[in-house]
Design goal:
This protein is an alpha/beta fold. It has four helices and five strands. Strands 1-2-3-4-5 form a five-stranded mixed sheet. The longest helix has 16 residues.
Length: 121
């Protein structure tokens, strides 16, 4: 099964909606799409895993790479809406301690909104 993706913006948050499998063959596509956010130095980025059915180590490496590149310029990357099977991969790799993982998109938007408010006051 292949993978599809779509990029959108909600209340200043760049969201990448992924679908299908993020594996050795599809990770370059995800890397390329995240690279666009990084090139434009997007500060608030969230990856929607709602329709992701599988992720392997190359997929994890792609997400970690984007996270580290965004930190350099002060960007923030969070993840949300993971299926239990995908979340388990993050937990086994102990990446659930490394990434902020939200249950739903609304929580992501509220989180970025509150962090923006706290930096401007």
């Amino acid at each position: 099964m292949g993978m599809a993706y779509a990029a959108r913006k909600v209340e200043g948050v760049s969201i990448l909606d992924l679908e299908g499998e993020i594996d050795l063959y599809r990770s370059p596509e995800v890397h390329s799409e995240l690279g666009k956010f990084i090139a434009q130095q997007h500060k608030s980025v969230a990856i929607n895993f709602q329709k992701v059915t599988y992720i392997d180590s190359s997929g994890l490496a792609t997400i970690i790479d984007a996270f580290q590149k965004m930190r350099v310029y002060g960007g923030k990357l969070v993840l949300f809406s993971m299926a239990k099977s995908v979340r388990t991969v993050f937990e086994v790799a102990r990446l659930d301690k490394f990434f902020i993982i939200f249950d739903e998109e609304t929580a992501v938007i509220l989180s970025f909104r509150s962090s923006a408010a706290s930096t401007t006051t």
